[in-house]
Design brief:
single chain; 180 residues; alpha+beta; three-stranded mixed beta sheet; 7 helices; 6 strands
Length: 180
Amino acid sequence: MKNTHICLAVDKHYYSVPHQFIGKKVKVLYNDDRVEIFYRYHRIAQHKRDRLKHKYTTSPDHLATSQRYVSSWSYDYFVGEGSKISREVGDYLAALMETKPNAEQGYKSCAGILHLAKKAGNLRVIQACKRAAEYGIYTYPIIEVILSKNLDALSLSEEQLDETALTPRHHNIRGKEYYS
């Protein structure tokens, strides 16, 4: 396989190898309690044998730097990082992840929002999270829109929705009067 794991077919279990060996042909030796992986007669990895099917045994040392960062992501990590900015951001990130069927689906959105805090500033992201929570929308794109349109600087009552911008005038559009 072209990733950082080899499959021990007997157990259908995956064991990590150092990322430098992705795509290289390795030799796997195993016994009842240990799995060893060799490349050109040098042992590059050793793991305790695990017989759970379709599971992974991963050593953090085997992951590339970018993979190590992503492997540390969790619900608690993002809520904690958001709470370091403010309680509102932490609550918003928690609510965002709760709207997703799997927490992993919310990780990228949460990472994006935390990145916006570095880019736009904590105060603006706090205000944007408050505004998005008022809308009841828990996504990265809404935070991005709020910041790009400077809606974080306005109160909800100050924000005026321009209906002509939403629906263009056209002779085929009947409008609400038609249905009276």
